[in-house]
Write a structure and sequence with these properties.
single chain; 3 domains; 7 helices; 22% helix; Archaeosine Trna-guanine Transglycosylase, Chain: A, domain 4; Pseudouridine synthase
């Protein structure tokens, strides 16, 4: 089984928990995810299955979209609602004007310090493992891009927002840093990821739905249509002869008129065979082979 499946991650599970659940449901060992979600967060978690794990390299720097709530009044150790308070609580009543002004400083390209409870590694050790042991965590700031940061509502001590960010951006750090600016602290109270690259909540299914579909033999219906994957690359539908040559590691001429150095090669409408690299002109070589005749035979069985 090869493809991309988008799970609507429930609260309380780690991304790895979801991967393990899907491995058991599909009976497929080769499953990976395209971008970690914190256990307390929900929403879009794209999974690559089978040979399609080879597509993960095209999603390393994917844009992400979030909706969430920031609570002002105190900071926490994890920068979200799962942590312990690290500042005395303050009763606050926020005003939209001050929050809009505050948010304006968190748009664009900026330096951001990752949370101590994060997967960032220090000498090969994830920071969260050190933080859990009470060890000092010394991380370096990283450059991130917040392309959109919209304040949707302000009520009491809570701010509802929508954000569109570049890879590596922590919304927990945004919440924490906003709290530092106003001196009485803040943390991320809730977070839902609504998109990763081309994958949105409209593509997502719950784990229970996947399990039910698997039992009914319809789980592949929940996979993203291969034509929608890696949309920045042009697509070519190859002849049976060209597909056979690609699978045998041979260079082949393909009817591709753009000048893209990489293209997606399909056999028919649904079978993504390979990502091919241009050698010269219309001559291509498959750098990444994604499906084989054996995969098709297994699917037909």
């Amino acid at each position: 089984m090869n493809g991309v499946l988008v799970i609507d991650k429930p609260q309380g599970l780690t991304s790895h928990d979801v991967v393990n659940r899907v491995r058991r449901i599909l009976g497929q060992r080769s499953v990976g995810h395209l971008g970690t979600l914190d256990p307390s967060a929900t929403g879009v978690l794209p999974l690559v299955v089978g040979n399609f794990t080879r597509l993960a390299q095209f999603y390393t720097h994917s844009e992400k979209t979030y909706e969430g709530v920031i609570r002002f009044g105190f900071a926490t150790s994890t920068y979200d609602a799962d942590g312990e308070a690290t500042t005395p609580p303050h009763e606050v009543t926020l005003h939209r004007e001050e929050i809009e002004a505050l948010a304006s400083g968190f748009r664009g390209t900026l330096e951001q310090m990752p949370p101590p409870f994060s997967a960032k590694k220090i000498a090969g050790v994830p920071a969260y493992k050190m933080a859990r042991k009470g060890q000092e965590v010394q991380l370096n700031p990283v450059q991130v891009e917040i392309k959109e940061f919209v304040i949707i509502a302000v009520a009491g001590d809570r701010v509802t927002f929508r954000a569109r960010v570049g890879s590596g951006t922590y919304m927990r750090s945004v919440a924490h840093d906003m709290g530092q600016k106003v001196r009485y602290g803040a943390h991320l109270a809730a977070l839902r990821r609504t998109a990763v690259a081309e994958f949105t909540v409209n593509n997502a299914c719950r784990l229970e739905a996947l399990e039910s579909a698997r039992q009914q033999g319809t789980s592949e219906d929940l996979f993203v249509h291969p034509r929608k994957l890696v949309p920045q690359l042009p697509s070519v539908t190859a002849t049976d002869e060209a597909v056979a040559m690609i699978r045998n590691g041979r260079a082949v001429n393909l009817p591709e008129m753009s000048r893209s150095p990489l293209i997606k090669v399909f056999a028919g409408q649904r079978e993504l065979v390979a990502i091919a690299t241009r050698i010269a002109g219309t001559l291509f070589h498959a750098g990444i082979v994604l499906t084989t005749p054996a995969d098709r035979d297994a699917r037909d069985d």
